[in-house]
C-alpha cells in the first residue's frame, strides 16, 4: 500500500476527529455505527456523514453495510495515518519517502525527521499472509478480523520496540530505536545491504564468528532471536559490520522449544555460509553451553518475560501473538485463532 504524505497533510481537524472516533468505537464494535461515530466525535449527524464520505474516498475508513445497521471500519490506511500523525505531532518524523521493503508482515519506508535526517518507519501488517488464506477458505473471524489483525499488529510493534530498546541499551548491534506508535516503529536508518544480497565478503570466517558471537550473546542474555537469517542481518556499506533487525518473534531461553529455536538460528547461518561463501566450520555454538552462561552474574540477563511485562502487555497477549505467528508459519487455516483473537478483544 502506498503511503501518501501529501494526502496526510490535507486531513482537516474535523476529519481527524471523526477518524479518531472510528478508532475509539472499534474497541467494542466490529463495525462502528454511524450514530456512535457522531456521538464520540461530538459532531452533528449530517456533518459526520459528509466527513466519513471523504475519509472513505481516501481509503482511511471503509463503509460496511450490516444487516442491522450501517457503519464504518478503520482501514490499514486510516490506522497508518493515525500512527504517523502521532509520530509527527511528537516531532519524531516529518515526511515520508520511499518504500524500501515489503516483508511478509510489514511495510518499510524511509522517512525523515524535521532536520531531514533519514529514519526507517516499519509498519506491522500481521496476518497479511494467513488473512488471505483464511479469506479464501471461510470467514473464520467474521467482521471482527480486520480490527483484530490491527490489534495484533500493534502488539507485534510493541514487542519489537521493547526488544529493540533493551538490546540497544546493552550495546547489541541493532538499529537505534527512535519512537513507537500504534502498529509502527521508527528507528535509525542503517546504510547497509541485507546479507542476502551480498555475493562476496573479505573474510567469511570472521563474519561467521561475529554472527555466531551475537547468537551466543543473545543466549547469555536469556534471548533467542528466532529468525536469525540472511534477510534479517544487514551489512553496513562502509564498515562491513553486521546489524541485526526484526525482533517481534524473539523467544526466551526458558521457552519450552528454546533449544530448537536456537539450533535453527545457528543452522540458518551455517547453511547460508556454506552455500553462498563455500565456508564451513566445525565450530558452532551449542545451546546448553551458550544459555548456561546466563547464570553468570557479570552478564546481562534480560529475562524475556520481564522485558515484555515492562513494555506493558500481559502473558495472555504474548501467547496470542505467538499462537498467531505459529499458525502462520505452519500455514494452516488457524481455527484456534478464532478463540484467541476474540478472547483478547480489548484494547
Ligand atoms: P519483516 O518483519 O517484514 O521481515 P524487517 O524488519 O526484516 O521486516 O525489514 C524488512 C527489510 O527492510 C529488511 O530486510 C531491510 O532490507 C529493510 N530494513 C528494515 N529495517 C531497516 C533499517 N533500520 N535500516 C535499513 N533498512 C532496513
Ligand atoms: Mg525480516
UniProtKB/TrEMBL annotation:
Its cofactor is Mg(2+). It catalyses: L-threonyl-[protein] + ATP = O-phospho-L-threonyl-[protein] + ADP + H(+); L-seryl-[protein] + ATP = O-phospho-L-seryl-[protein] + ADP + H(+). It comes from Pterulicium gracile. This is Serine/threonine-protein kinase RIO2. The keyword Signal does not apply. One of its GO terms (molecular function) is ATP binding. PROSITE patterns: RIO1. Its EC number is 2.7.11.1.
